[in-house]
Structure formats: structure tokens, C-alpha cells
Write a structure and sequence with these properties.
The chain is mostly beta strands. It has a single domain, classed as Pectate Lyase C-like (3 Solenoid), CATH 2.160.20. The protein is 5% helix and 46% strand. It contains 3 helices and 33 strands. It has a 12-stranded mixed sheet, with no helix packed on it. Strands 9-11-14-17-20-23-21-18-15-12 form a 10-stranded parallel barrel. The longest helix has 7 residues. The radius of gyration is 22 Å and the shape is elongated. The termini are far apart.
Length: 368
């Protein structure tokens, strides 16, 4: 009896449903539940607003599943919803909003799954180090079918190890980056079927406006299994005069492939290769025709990452119609010739493409 009373502190004892899930009602402490129940527990988060909840160091194997309408609201008073280490952790179907630093912040772990999670009005600073999802030294990451709105950044992953899958997500007004991989490496790193838009002027607090929608920084795939940026689409841009839709080879790196991506007025540059080795840009489609003064070029290859090696860039079989600045001049590809670029079989300018390519993307099937 004493043991039962101890376990019930802070929560009622009648918490298990017929499937063995532990039910969390509004007013329950998520941290107490995490500490109370053993590894491998499945928590069912009831519909409703769960205010100022946080979970530090979720136990290995734990799963958090939200009913429709389940919301964790930090009220702009709590720093993070989940933090610490993540080992075999699944978070699914929960809206995470109004957290001051990050929605989710794990500094180590393996096998993290985020599915159908909505992040809103969350993150701190300019988005360089804080955002919806901040991961350091985490291996085997899956983030899918989730939504990011008005956050300081979307997914910031540093020193990660593959496999990494970021797919079928939607991002609107996401601050500095939707995805930045920083010093990540290994096999099966895939960013694919994501849809990104800049709508209106509302951003999160002091968020830096979008720079690069997708940024691959000092990261390495392998010769047989390159980092894959595939079938993503981006529409619209902020006010940054250096940003791009997809930036590859930034700070060096190697074995990266961007293919099948579609950009509609996505930034100063469509897809840039800023350095690195064995970087391929193939079969993408870029369109920019709004007369924005900072619009620059659809595709480029250059060595902006000295002293790191730069070689074997390829830009091939792409299509674009890209107007530079306010001068109404075509600007589809540029290179400084320093990275042994192979530029061939592209269709520049392609007068057949327009804003409607947004709907032709493979990412459109599920996101629209």
C-alpha cells in the first residue's frame, strides 16, 4: 500500500487504459509521469491545453502520443517542452507552442522519432542556435509529417549521424532555416518531400528572417550514399540578401546530391554549391520573376569555403527561368570555375515554366 501511495503522488492512480497506455489529463505533470513510470511506457496525452509542461530526460523507450487537439503550451514562460537525452524516444501528434528557447532540445541519443508534431510560435534569439527542434550528437533521426509555423528556426541538427530522415513536413515562416545540418555524416541522410513557404510578415519575436531554407554545412555523405536533398519545394523569401533555397557544400563537406527540387521566388539564389567535393545538382526546377532587387541566380558553383577542398561540382539537366534583380535580365547559372564544375544539359532559360511549377512537385501530393 505504501508503494502504491508513493507512485500516485501528483497524479491519480487510475491512469492505464485497456491498451496499457498511461493517460495524461490536463493538469497532470508530464515530468512526474516520466519519473514515475518505467522505461518503455506509452503516454496518451489527452486533448486540451497542457500548460507549462516540460520533460527532462525522457526514459529510454518512452512514447508520447497526443489525441487530436493535444497541446503543450509553454506560455512563453518555459524554456523547452522536451530536453536532455533521447534514446528510443517517440513524440507524436502533439502541438508544441510558446516555448522560449526550443520546442525539443536533445544533446545526445539515438533513435528519435517525431511524427505529426506541430510547432508554433516557439524558439529564441535569431534562429542560429534555437528553434523548434535542436539536436546535438543524436543518431538515427526521423522527423516526418510535422508542421512548423512562426518558429525562429525549424530543425537544427549538429554533429548528427545517419540515418537521418526529414520528410513530408510543412514549414511556414520558419525564421532563419527550415533545416540546417551542421557537421553531420554517414549513410542514409535524406531531406525530401518537404514544403516551405514565406507568407506575410509575421515572424516569431526576434527571429532572423529566412536565410537558407535548407543548409548543408560541413556535412558528408558517402560515395555510394550521398546526402540526399530530394523533391522539396520552397515558395517565397524574406528580406535577406544572401539567402537561398538550398545551400550545399557550405564550409566544405562532400557527397551531396540535390535533385527534383522546385523553387518559386525562393531567395537570392535557387541552389548554390558553396564549396566541398563531389556535389551534384541535377534535375531541379527554379523560377524567379518578381523583380526583387536582390534576386541573383538560379544555380551556382563557387569556392566560398576555403581552406577546405573544392572539386567535382556538377550542375546538369536542370531547368530555370530566373530574372536577376530589377533589370529584367536572365541569370540562370554562374561559376567561378574553381571547383572543377561540370555544367551540361541544362535548359536555360525555360520559357515554359512559371509559378505553377509549385503544384508539379512530388511534395505537392500530400502537402496540398
Amino acid at each position: 500500500m505504501l508503494l502504491i501511495l508513493f507512485f500516485c503522488i501528483g497524479m491519480s492512480c487510475d491512469r492505464m487504459d485497456q491498451s496499457g497506455q498511461i493517460i495524461l489529463e490536463t493538469g497532470d505533470s508530464f515530468q512526474v509521469a516520466n519519473d514515475m513510470y518505467p522505461e518503455g511506457t506509452v503516454f496518451l496525452v489527452r486533448s486540451g491545453v497542457h500548460e507549462k509542461q516540460t520533460v527532462r530526460n525522457p526514459k529510454p523507450g518512452n512514447t508520447w502520443i497526443g489525441e487530436t487537439g493535444a497541446i503543450m503550451d509553454g506560455k512563453n514562460e518555459v524554456t523547452e517542452a522536451f530536453l536532455g537525452a533521447a534514446n528510443d524516444i517517440t513524440i507524436q501528434g502533439i502541438t508544441i507552442r510558446n516555448y522560449l528557447k526550443n520546442g525539443i532540445h536533445f544533446n545526445s541519443g539515438t533513435n528519435l522519432k517525431l511524427r505529426r508534431v506541430t510547432f508554433e510560435d516557439t524558439g529564441g534569439g535569431t534562429g542560429e542556435v534555437k528553434g523548434a527542434v535542436r539536436l546535438n550528437y543524436v543518431q538515427n533521426i526521423t522527423i516526418s509529417h510535422s508542421t512548423f509555423k512562426r518558429v525562429t528556426a525549424g530543425i537544427l541538427s549538429t554533429d548528427c549521424k545517419g540515418p537521418v530522415t526529414i520528410e513530408w513536413n510543412t514549414a511556414i515562416n520558419i525564421g532563419r532555416n527550415f533545416v540546417q545540418l551542421d557537421k553531420c555524416s554517414g549513410n542514409d541522410i535524406k531531406i525530401r518531400y518537404n514544403s516551405m513557404e514565406r507568407q506575410g510578415d509575421y515572424l516569431r519575436g526576434s527571429a532572423h528572417d529566412v536565410v537558407d531554407w535548407i543548409s548543408i554545412f560541413k556535412s558528408e555523405g558517402t560515395a555510394d550514399n550521398p546526402i540526399m536533398v530530394k523533391y522539396n519545394r520552397a515558395r517565397g523569401h524574406g528580406h535577406d540578401d544572401t539567402g537561398s533555397f538550398i545551400m550545399l557544400g557550405d564550409g566544405g563537406g562532400k557527397h551531396q546530391l540535390a535533385t527534383g527540387n522546385i523553387g518559386v521566388n525562393p531567395g537570392q539564389v535557387g541552389i548554390g554549391i558553396a564549396g566541398g567535393e563531389n556535389i551534384v545538382v541535377r534535375e531541379n526546377m527554379m523560377y524567379s520573376n518578381e523583380g526583387w532587387e536582390d534576386s541573383n541566380v538560379a544555380f551556382y558553383s563557387a569556392n566560398y569555403s576555403e581552406p577546405h577542398p573544392c572539386a567535382n561540382h556538377e550542375i546538369s539537366e536542370n531547368r530555370s527561368f530566373w530574372i536577376k534583380g530589377t533589370l529584367r535580365m536572365q541569370s540562370n547559372v554562374w561559376t567561378d570555375q574553381r571547383c572543377s564544375p561540370k555544367i551540361e544539359n541544362n535548359y536555360f532559360p525555360d520559357f515554359s515554366i512559371n509559378n505553377d511549377i509549385w503544384y508539379n512537385s512530388a511534395a505537392a501530393t500530400e502537402n496540398d
